[in-house]
Amino acid sequence: MAEQNIAQILSAFNKIEDKLTDQTKILKQLTAKVNHLEGQNSKLTDLLHQLQHSHTLTQETNPSGRSEFQHKVEQCLTSLESKSKKTLELVKLNSGNVKKRSWP
Prior knowledge:
Elements: H1 2-61, H2 68-97
């Protein structure tokens, strides 16, 4: 009877040891994942600081808050607008002087 109790106790200890080793493996995996996420978090905060820094620099260089690209696009659009106005004026001037025939 005592041998059975000792065997049961040893079996219980072995089960406990197996569960502890499984939990240790899980803890190691979770620690690795946490370290990985902390690394990503630090990278993201660095990128955020860089973006904020570059945003403040662009606001200092361009007080209206527009980026250089937006400024170039606006220049191109105003240039196209002025050219189209000139073209329309020329078309109006040329069409007013020419007499149109009533037949082809």
